[in-house]
Specification:
255 residues; mainly alpha; Serine Threonine Protein Phosphatase 5, Tetratricopeptide repeat; two-stranded antiparallel ribbon; 10 helices; globular
Length: 255
């Protein structure tokens, strides 16, 4: 249950989750409310990420649902969010084995890979929609067919890539996707989060209560990033491999 400092959700990831009605938060018809930014979102958001104001059920610390708010625990992390996916909230002893099975591939990834390949090959036919709809039906979200019918090939590509980002969050596939899609300069930018120091000083007003004079959302840069497309689409070749083969040449910019 305890969090190791291995990764944290970014505000960019949080904003990539659509609304429960199947529309992105940038769509004027989505119903997104900046004063209640975490409400009425894709159910996978609250299932995958702890956000300020969210009730937590942490049996190992003696808490039950609705008795503690995430930001009150002082565990919000640098950007105001923490991963919830894979967390066993019913674990009563932190020293016990958590018990999550190791994943090699999920059926969700099979569906997403099919949808991506089929869209690239022949465009967004009914089978592409059906693959995405299976994912959304599983979580009780409005289907893509109902929310965004008639997408072009390019628009469907955007949807599929975003669907991969949120469905497969924290499963180690995001950076390989960035590499193969060659979108590094567009997405490997300064990381945003919420000012966790500010959040700890102020009480969250509660769901659907909006901002107040004492509570509002403060965005800040939590990590400065850079991406060199001439270098960063490739990994460095380990020195021991180069030493064992005199004909092997290091990838560019890693010498």
């Amino acid at each position: 249950m305890a969090w190791w400092p291995s990764y944290l959700p970014t505000l960019q990831l949080v904003n990539s989750y659509y609304m429960a009605n199947g529309l992105p938060i940038t769509d004027p018809n989505s119903g997104y409310d900046p004063e209640n930014p975490f409400m009425d979102r894709d159910p996978r958001f609250a299932a995958s990420i702890y956000y300020p104001g969210q009730s937590m059920k942490l049996a190992m610390w003696g808490y039950t649902a609705d008795t503690v708010r995430f930001e009150h625990l002082g565990i919000m992390g640098l950007g105001g969010f923490k991963p919830r996916k894979w967390i066993n909230e019913g674990l009563v002893d932190i020293n016990n084995t958590e018990g999550t099975n190791k994943l090699f591939i999920r059926y969700a990834e099979v569906l997403l890979t099919y949808a991506e390949a089929k869209n690239e090959a022949s465009g967004p036919d009914a089978s592409v929609y059906a693959a995405i709809d299976q994912l959304r039906n599983r979580v009780g979200m409005t289907t893509l067919s109902a929310a965004m019918s008639g997408l072009t090939k390019d628009k469907m590509r955007e949807v599929i890539r975003n669907e991969r980002r949120i469905e497969l969050a924290f499963e180690g596939l995001r950076f390989p996707d960035i590499q193969r899609w060659k979108i590094g300069p567009q997405v490997m930018v300064n990381t945003l989060g919420l000012d966790a120091t500010f959040l700890k000083r102020n009480a969250y007003p509660g769901d659907h209560k909006g901002i107040t004079a004492d509570w509002y959302y403060v965005t800040k840069v939590i990590d400065t990033r850079s991406f060199n497309p001439s270098r960063d689409y490739l990994w460095p070749i380990p020195r021991k491999e180069i030493n064992s083969n005199k004909k092997m040449v290091q990838n560019p910019y890693y010498d």
